[in-house]
Write a structure and sequence with these properties.
Length: 390
C-alpha cells in the first residue's frame, strides 16, 4: 500500500481542526460549517475582549495585570494564528499538491522508513507539547475547586458579564472559561503541528535525496567492462543526479510556500513568547511554592518553552539536512563520471552554498541560536520587571 504523505504527517492536526470547524468545510454542509466555525472563533475572541476589559479595570496593579497579561498574549497568539490559517486555506491546498506530487513519492522501502521515522518524531514532540498544555489547563480548572478560601471564583481573572456568587451563573461562567481554554490549547497544538509537520516533511525529503546519492555507481577504468555497460551506468548516474536536483528544487519551493504562508504566524508567536515567558517567570516568583498556581505556572512555562524549541529545532534540522546534502554530493564518485555529470554537479554545489533557512517574518532564522537568544531576551525583561515589582 502506497504511503500517503498528508496522512502520515498531518493526520492528528487534521482531526483536531476538523472537530473544531477550522479545516476545509464539507461540500454538503457549507452553511452549518461556517456557523460552527464562527461560534468557535467567537469563544476565543470574546475571551480576549474580556481580558482587555479586566486589564483596563485593574490598570496600575502589577499583580493583577501580570496574572491577566500572560493569558492575553496566549489568546492573542491563538486567535491570530487560527485566523491566518483560515484565510490562507487556499495556500494549504497548494502545499497538499506538493506533498502529493510524484517526485515526493517514496521509491524504496528505505524511503518509506525515512518518512515514517520523521513523521513519528514530530508527532511525538507535538504530543509532548499538547500533553503539557492540557496538564496546565487542567490545573487551572482545579484551582477554584481546591481553594479553601470559601468565596467562589472563576479559574481566570477576566471580566465576566456574570458573577461567581450565585448559581447557575457560576457554573455557566466556569464552563465557558474552561471550554474556551481547552479549545485554545487544541488549536495551538493543531495549527503549529501543520506547520511543523510540513517542515519535517521537507527534512525527510532531503534525507531521501541523500539516500539516493548513494546509488551513484563508480565507473571502473578496467577494460573488462564493455563500452555498452559503461554507457548504461553513465546514463543511469546522470538521470539519478537530475532526479535528485529536481527533487531538491521542489523541496525548496515547498519550504518557500510554507514560509510565505505561515511566516507571520511564527513571527507573532516568537514575539509573544518573549512576553509570555517573562510574565510567567514573574508569576512563578510571586506564587507560593506549594500552591496549585505555582505548579500550573511551572508546567505552562514548560509548554511555552517546548513550543518555542519545536520551531527552532525543526528549522535547525532543515538547515542541517541541506548542508549535509551538499557534503554528500561531493562525496559521491563524481571523478569517474562524464563531463556532463561533473558540470551539473559543480553548478548544483555552487547553488547549494546557501543552505535552506526557514525564517519567521522573513527575518528571524529558526535555529538553536535563535532559541537561546529568545531565552536571554526573556530573562532580561523578566529581571527588569522583577526589580520593578520588588
Amino acid at each position: 500500500m502506497a504511503i500517503n504523505n498528508i496522512d502520515l504527517f498531518l493526520s492528528r492536526p487534521r482531526k483536531v481542526l476538523k472537530a473544531l470547524g477550522i479545516w476545509f468545510p464539507p461540500e454538503n454542509y457549507l452553511l452549518l460549517h461556517a456557523l460552527y466555525t464562527i461560534l468557535i472563533m467567537l469563544t476565543q475572541y470574546a475571551f480576549i475582549l474580556f481580558e482587555f476589559i479586566y486589564i483596563a479595570g485593574v490598570w496600575g496593579d502589577i499583580d493583577s495585570m501580570s496574572e491577566a497579561s500572560y493569558l492575553l498574549f496566549t489568546q492573542a497568539s491563538v486567535c491570530y494564528k487560527v485566523t491566518v490559517f483560515i484565510v490562507n486555506r487556499k495556500n494549504l491546498t497548494i502545499l497538499f499538491e506538493f506533498m502529493k506530487s510524484e517526485i515526493f513519492a517514496p521509491q524504496t522501502k528505505q524511503h518509506e522508513l525515512i518518512l515514517i521515522k520523521s513523521s513519528q518524531k514530530i508527532k511525538n514532540y507535538c504530543m509532548f507539547f499538547l500533553t503539557t498544555a492540557l496538564a496546565t489547563v487542567t490545573l487551572w480548572a482545579l484551582m477554584p475547586l481546591l481553594d479553601n478560601a470559601g468565596a467562589r471564583f472563576f479559574p481566570f481573572r477576566i471580566w465576566m458579564p456574570i458573577g461567581p456568587e450565585k448559581s447557575p451563573q457560576y457554573e455557566l461562567g466556569y464552563l465557558y472559561q474552561m471550554m474556551s481554554i481547552y479549545i485554545s490549547a487544541s488549536l495551538f497544538f493543531a495549527v503549529d503541528s501543520v506547520t511543523l509537520g510540513m517542515i519535517m516533511f521537507g527534512c525527510a525529503q532531503l534525507e531521501i535525496i541523500i539516500d539516493k546519492l548513494q546509488e551513484v555507481q563508480e565507473i571502473p577504468l578496467s577494460t573488462k567492462l564493455r563500452n555498452e555497460e559503461k554507457i548504461k551506468i553513465t546514463k543511469r548516474n546522470n538521470e539519478l543526479l537530475v532526479d535528485c536536483i529536481s527533487q531538491h528544487q521542489t523541496v525548496i519551493r515547498l519550504i518557500e510556500t510554507v514560509e510565505n504562508t505561515y511566516h507571520a504566524n511564527i513571527f507573532f508567536q516568537l514575539s509573544g513568547t518573549v512576553a509570555i515567558i517573562c510574565i510567567i517567570g514573574l508569576r512563578i516568583t510571586m506564587s507560593e511554592p506549594s500552591s496549585v498556581q505555582f505548579y500550573s505556572m511551572l508546567i505552562y512555562m514548560v509548554t511555552m518553552l517546548s513550543q518555542l524549541f519545536l520551531y527552532c529545532w525543526c528549522g535547525s534540522e532543515l538547515t542541517t539536512r541541506s548542508q549535509e546534502l551538499r557534503d554528500r554530493l561531493y562525496q559521491c564518485p563524481w571523478y569517474d563520471q562524464d563531463i556532463y555529470f561533473k558540470k551539473l554537479l559543480l553548478l548544483t554545489m555552487e547553488c547549494m552554498k546557501k543552505p535552506i533557512i526557514f525564517k519567521a517574518g522573513h527575518y528571524i532564522p529558526l535555529s538553536r541560536p535563535t532559541f537561546v537568544s529568545i531565552l536571554r531576551t526573556s530573562y532580561s525583561y523578566f529581571a527588569v520587571l522583577n526589580q520593578t515589582h520588588n
